[in-house]
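To illustrate the input format used throughout this study, we show a single complete record. The first block contains the structure-token representation of the backbone; no residue identities are included at this stage. The design step must infer an amino acid for every position from geometry alone.
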């Protein structure tokens, strides 16, 4: 089961509305701010994105 879906990017921001279990961020920096504030724990995280998004930079925020 999927508990949360975090979508990042200008395209998602234009076409997706936030709903329960789904949160949309306009860019990586906005996602980073969310991860710093929320500190989600106990989740298996799948990160998928194009190289231009540089999502590997969020890795330190996902590690214990």
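Output of the design step:
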């Amino acid at each position: 089961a999927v508990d949360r879906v975090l979508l990042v990017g200008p395209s998602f921001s234009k076409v997706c509305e936030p709903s329960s279990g789904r949160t949309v961020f306009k860019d990586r920096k906005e996602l980073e701010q969310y991860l710093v504030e929320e500190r989600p724990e106990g989740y298996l995280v799948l990160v998928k994105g194009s190289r231009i998004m540089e999502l590997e930079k969020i890795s330190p925020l996902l590690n214990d």
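Structural context for interpreting the output: The two ends are 23 Å apart (CA to CA). Strands lie at 5-8, 22-25.
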